[in-house]
Amino acid sequence: MRTGIPGELHADQVGLDRHGLSAGPPTGPATDPATDRVGAAMRTGVIGTGRIGSTLARILVAAGHEVVLANARGPRSLGPLLAELGPAASAAHPAEAAAQAELSVLMVPYASVRGLLPSAAVQDKVLVDATNAFSGGGKPADLGGRASSELVAEWYPGARVVKSLNTMHFETLAVAGTAEGERLAHFTAGDDEKAKEIVAGIIADLGFAPVDTGPLHSGGILQQPGGPLFNRPLTEAQALAWISH
Protein backbone atom coordinates (compact mmCIF):
# COMPACT_ATOMS: atom_id res chain seq x y z
CA MET A 1 0.00 0.00 0.00
CA ARG A 2 1.31 3.39 -0.90
CA THR A 3 1.95 5.81 1.90
CA GLY A 4 1.49 9.54 2.07
CA ILE A 5 -1.73 9.65 0.02
CA PRO A 6 -3.78 12.75 0.93
CA GLY A 7 -7.25 11.96 2.21
CA GLU A 8 -10.41 13.99 2.25
CA LEU A 9 -11.52 15.55 -1.03
CA HIS A 10 -13.27 18.86 -1.37
CA ALA A 11 -15.69 19.92 -4.08
CA ASP A 12 -13.11 22.05 -5.86
CA GLN A 13 -10.50 19.29 -5.94
CA VAL A 14 -12.27 16.55 -7.87
CA GLY A 15 -13.63 17.85 -11.15
CA LEU A 16 -15.39 20.86 -9.65
CA ASP A 17 -12.77 23.52 -10.14
CA ARG A 18 -13.64 26.94 -8.81
CA HIS A 19 -10.43 28.45 -10.18
CA GLY A 20 -10.84 27.39 -13.83
CA LEU A 21 -13.65 26.39 -16.12
CA SER A 22 -12.96 24.19 -14.14
CA ALA A 23 -9.10 -4.16 -14.96
CA GLY A 24 -5.90 -5.73 -14.65
CA PRO A 25 -2.38 -5.26 -15.97
CA PRO A 26 -1.45 -2.11 -17.87
CA THR A 27 -3.17 -1.97 -21.24
CA GLY A 28 -0.18 -0.44 -23.03
CA PRO A 29 0.29 2.85 -24.81
CA ALA A 30 -2.44 5.29 -25.59
CA THR A 31 -4.86 4.63 -28.42
CA ASP A 32 -5.64 6.90 -31.34
CA PRO A 33 -9.45 7.28 -31.19
CA ALA A 34 -9.63 8.24 -34.84
CA THR A 35 -8.47 4.76 -35.82
CA ASP A 36 -8.79 2.84 -32.51
CA ARG A 37 -5.14 1.91 -33.04
CA VAL A 38 -2.91 1.27 -30.06
CA GLY A 39 0.46 2.96 -30.02
CA ALA A 40 -0.08 6.64 -30.79
CA ALA A 41 0.24 9.43 -28.25
CA MET A 42 -2.92 11.50 -28.17
CA ARG A 43 -3.86 15.14 -28.27
CA THR A 44 -6.12 15.56 -25.26
CA GLY A 45 -8.37 18.52 -24.63
CA VAL A 46 -8.42 19.48 -20.95
CA ILE A 47 -11.52 21.61 -20.49
CA GLY A 48 -11.11 23.29 -17.11
CA THR A 49 -7.73 24.36 -15.74
CA GLY A 50 -8.19 24.65 -12.00
CA ARG A 51 -6.12 22.54 -9.66
CA ILE A 52 -7.37 19.19 -10.94
CA GLY A 53 -7.30 20.15 -14.64
CA SER A 54 -3.85 21.70 -14.44
CA THR A 55 -2.57 18.61 -12.64
CA LEU A 56 -3.98 16.34 -15.32
CA ALA A 57 -2.32 18.46 -18.01
CA ARG A 58 1.05 18.18 -16.28
CA ILE A 59 0.99 14.41 -15.97
CA LEU A 60 -0.32 13.95 -19.51
CA VAL A 61 2.57 15.97 -20.92
CA ALA A 62 5.02 14.06 -18.71
CA ALA A 63 3.61 10.83 -20.18
CA GLY A 64 4.21 12.01 -23.75
CA HIS A 65 0.78 13.33 -24.69
CA GLU A 66 -0.10 16.65 -26.27
CA VAL A 67 -2.70 18.79 -24.50
CA VAL A 68 -5.01 21.59 -25.59
CA LEU A 69 -6.10 23.61 -22.58
CA ALA A 70 -9.25 25.69 -22.17
CA ASN A 71 -10.92 27.61 -19.37
CA ALA A 72 -13.56 30.27 -18.82
CA ARG A 73 -11.07 33.15 -18.89
CA GLY A 74 -9.65 32.44 -22.32
CA PRO A 75 -6.30 31.34 -23.75
CA ARG A 76 -4.38 34.42 -22.59
CA SER A 77 -4.95 33.45 -18.97
CA LEU A 78 -3.07 30.19 -19.57
CA GLY A 79 0.30 31.73 -20.46
CA PRO A 80 2.11 30.69 -17.25
CA LEU A 81 0.86 27.11 -17.47
CA LEU A 82 1.79 26.89 -21.16
CA ALA A 83 5.29 28.16 -20.35
CA GLU A 84 5.61 25.47 -17.71
CA LEU A 85 4.37 22.66 -19.96
CA GLY A 86 6.37 23.58 -23.05
CA PRO A 87 5.72 22.83 -26.73
CA ALA A 88 3.42 19.86 -26.06
CA ALA A 89 0.75 22.24 -24.74
CA SER A 90 -1.44 24.81 -26.46
CA ALA A 91 -4.48 26.82 -25.44
CA ALA A 92 -7.83 27.59 -27.02
CA HIS A 93 -11.41 28.38 -26.16
CA PRO A 94 -13.43 25.33 -25.00
CA ALA A 95 -15.16 24.68 -28.33
CA GLU A 96 -11.86 25.05 -30.22
CA ALA A 97 -10.01 22.80 -27.78
CA ALA A 98 -12.58 20.04 -28.16
CA ALA A 99 -12.49 20.36 -31.95
CA GLN A 100 -8.68 20.19 -32.06
CA ALA A 101 -8.37 17.31 -29.60
CA GLU A 102 -8.73 13.62 -30.30
CA LEU A 103 -10.22 13.11 -26.84
CA SER A 104 -11.53 15.68 -24.37
CA VAL A 105 -11.79 15.63 -20.58
CA LEU A 106 -14.43 17.75 -18.85
CA MET A 107 -12.99 19.13 -15.60
CA VAL A 108 -15.46 21.94 -15.08
CA PRO A 109 -18.28 22.52 -12.60
CA TYR A 110 -21.04 20.08 -13.47
CA ALA A 111 -23.54 22.91 -13.85
CA SER A 112 -21.39 24.30 -16.68
CA VAL A 113 -21.39 21.16 -18.83
CA ARG A 114 -24.67 21.49 -20.68
CA GLY A 115 -24.22 23.70 -23.72
CA LEU A 116 -20.53 24.27 -23.05
CA LEU A 117 -19.40 22.61 -26.29
CA PRO A 118 -20.98 22.44 -29.73
CA SER A 119 -22.09 18.90 -30.46
CA ALA A 120 -20.04 18.84 -33.66
CA ALA A 121 -16.81 19.35 -31.70
CA VAL A 122 -17.21 16.02 -29.91
CA GLN A 123 -19.09 14.05 -32.55
CA ASP A 124 -17.80 10.45 -32.59
CA LYS A 125 -15.01 11.40 -30.16
CA VAL A 126 -14.33 10.10 -26.68
CA LEU A 127 -15.56 12.59 -24.08
CA VAL A 128 -14.38 11.86 -20.54
CA ASP A 129 -16.76 13.19 -17.92
CA ALA A 130 -14.56 13.94 -14.92
CA THR A 131 -17.09 16.31 -13.35
CA ASN A 132 -18.88 15.85 -10.04
CA ALA A 133 -22.47 16.87 -9.44
CA PHE A 134 -22.81 18.65 -6.11
CA SER A 135 -25.71 20.63 -4.72
CA GLY A 136 -25.45 23.51 -2.28
CA GLY A 137 -23.28 22.86 0.74
CA GLY A 138 -21.11 20.35 -1.07
CA LYS A 139 -23.70 17.55 -0.90
CA PRO A 140 -24.24 15.14 -3.81
CA ALA A 141 -26.85 16.50 -6.20
CA ASP A 142 -30.20 14.73 -6.36
CA LEU A 143 -30.43 13.50 -9.94
CA GLY A 144 -33.47 11.30 -9.43
CA GLY A 145 -31.51 8.06 -9.52
CA ARG A 146 -29.70 8.94 -12.72
CA ALA A 147 -25.96 8.88 -13.15
CA SER A 148 -24.65 12.37 -13.85
CA SER A 149 -22.75 11.05 -16.86
CA GLU A 150 -25.97 9.66 -18.33
CA LEU A 151 -27.19 13.23 -18.53
CA VAL A 152 -23.92 14.32 -20.12
CA ALA A 153 -24.41 11.62 -22.75
CA GLU A 154 -27.91 12.95 -23.44
CA TRP A 155 -26.59 16.49 -23.79
CA TYR A 156 -23.88 15.31 -26.23
CA PRO A 157 -25.57 12.43 -28.06
CA GLY A 158 -22.84 12.05 -30.68
CA ALA A 159 -20.01 11.72 -28.15
CA ARG A 160 -18.58 8.49 -26.76
CA VAL A 161 -18.97 9.36 -23.07
CA VAL A 162 -16.84 7.67 -20.42
CA LYS A 163 -17.02 8.46 -16.71
CA SER A 164 -13.47 8.59 -15.32
CA LEU A 165 -10.77 10.63 -13.57
CA ASN A 166 -13.22 12.20 -11.11
CA THR A 167 -12.58 10.39 -7.82
CA MET A 168 -9.03 11.35 -6.88
CA HIS A 169 -7.65 14.35 -4.98
CA PHE A 170 -5.51 16.56 -7.22
CA GLU A 171 -2.48 16.17 -4.95
CA THR A 172 -2.73 12.38 -5.21
CA LEU A 173 -3.17 12.57 -8.96
CA ALA A 174 -0.01 14.65 -9.24
CA VAL A 175 2.35 12.12 -7.66
CA ALA A 176 0.77 8.71 -7.23
CA GLY A 177 1.30 7.57 -10.83
CA THR A 178 5.07 7.70 -10.44
CA ALA A 179 5.29 6.64 -6.78
CA GLU A 180 6.73 3.31 -5.74
CA GLY A 181 4.43 0.52 -4.64
CA GLU A 182 1.13 -0.77 -5.91
CA ARG A 183 -0.66 1.26 -8.53
CA LEU A 184 -3.75 3.17 -7.50
CA ALA A 185 -6.93 2.62 -9.48
CA HIS A 186 -8.75 4.99 -11.77
CA PHE A 187 -12.20 3.82 -12.76
CA THR A 188 -13.99 3.81 -16.10
CA ALA A 189 -17.70 3.50 -16.78
CA GLY A 190 -19.42 3.66 -20.14
CA ASP A 191 -21.57 1.95 -22.74
CA ASP A 192 -18.93 2.10 -25.50
CA GLU A 193 -16.41 -0.65 -24.76
CA LYS A 194 -13.81 0.66 -27.21
CA ALA A 195 -14.03 4.13 -25.74
CA LYS A 196 -13.40 2.67 -22.29
CA GLU A 197 -10.34 0.84 -23.66
CA ILE A 198 -8.99 4.12 -25.02
CA VAL A 199 -9.41 5.83 -21.66
CA ALA A 200 -7.91 2.80 -19.91
CA GLY A 201 -4.83 3.14 -22.10
CA ILE A 202 -4.36 6.74 -21.02
CA ILE A 203 -4.85 5.80 -17.36
CA ALA A 204 -2.14 3.14 -17.72
CA ASP A 205 0.16 5.65 -19.45
CA LEU A 206 -0.18 7.89 -16.40
CA GLY A 207 0.94 5.10 -14.08
CA PHE A 208 -2.43 4.13 -12.67
CA ALA A 209 -4.49 0.94 -12.92
CA PRO A 210 -7.65 1.15 -15.05
CA VAL A 211 -10.59 -0.64 -13.45
CA ASP A 212 -13.91 -0.99 -15.32
CA THR A 213 -17.00 -0.34 -13.18
CA GLY A 214 -19.47 -1.24 -15.92
CA PRO A 215 -22.11 0.66 -17.90
CA LEU A 216 -22.58 4.41 -17.73
CA HIS A 217 -25.63 4.16 -15.45
CA SER A 218 -24.58 1.65 -12.81
CA GLY A 219 -20.84 2.21 -13.12
CA GLY A 220 -21.19 5.97 -13.13
CA ILE A 221 -23.28 5.93 -9.95
CA LEU A 222 -20.52 3.97 -8.20
CA GLN A 223 -18.01 6.73 -9.03
CA GLN A 224 -19.96 9.93 -8.53
CA PRO A 225 -20.39 11.86 -5.26
CA GLY A 226 -22.40 9.74 -2.86
CA GLY A 227 -21.18 6.56 -4.55
CA PRO A 228 -18.97 4.00 -2.79
CA LEU A 229 -15.90 4.63 -4.98
CA PHE A 230 -15.88 8.41 -4.73
CA ASN A 231 -13.03 9.90 -2.67
CA ARG A 232 -11.73 6.43 -1.88
CA PRO A 233 -8.15 5.79 -3.06
CA LEU A 234 -7.77 2.06 -3.70
CA THR A 235 -4.91 0.00 -5.04
CA GLU A 236 -5.56 -2.06 -8.13
CA ALA A 237 -5.97 -5.22 -6.06
CA GLN A 238 -8.34 -3.54 -3.62
CA ALA A 239 -10.43 -2.06 -6.43
CA LEU A 240 -10.69 -5.34 -8.31
CA ALA A 241 -11.64 -7.15 -5.10
CA TRP A 242 -14.33 -4.56 -4.39
CA ILE A 243 -15.74 -4.74 -7.94
CA SER A 244 -15.92 -8.55 -7.83
CA HIS A 245 -17.49 -8.85 -4.35
Rg over CA atoms, rounded to whole Å, is 16 Å
Strand proportion, as a percent range, falls in 15-25%
What fraction, in percent, of the residue positions are helical?
A: 25-40%
Main β-sheet: number of strands, strand sense, barrel status? Answer: 8 strands, mixed
Overall geometry comes to globular
Mean pLDDT: 87
Describe what you observe in this structure.
It contains eight helices and ten strands. The protein has helices spanning 51-62, 79-85, 94-100, 148-155, 170-175, 193-205, 216-223, 236-244; strands spanning 31-32, 37-38, 43-47, 66-70, 89-91, 103-106, 126-129, 160-164, 185-190, 209-214. It has an eight-stranded mixed beta sheet with strand order 5-4-3-6-7-8-9-10, sandwiched between helices. Strands 1-2 form a two-stranded antiparallel sheet. Residues 1-35 have low confidence and may be disordered.
Give the structure's gist in a few sentences:
With 245 residues, the chain is α/β, with parallel strands linked by helices.
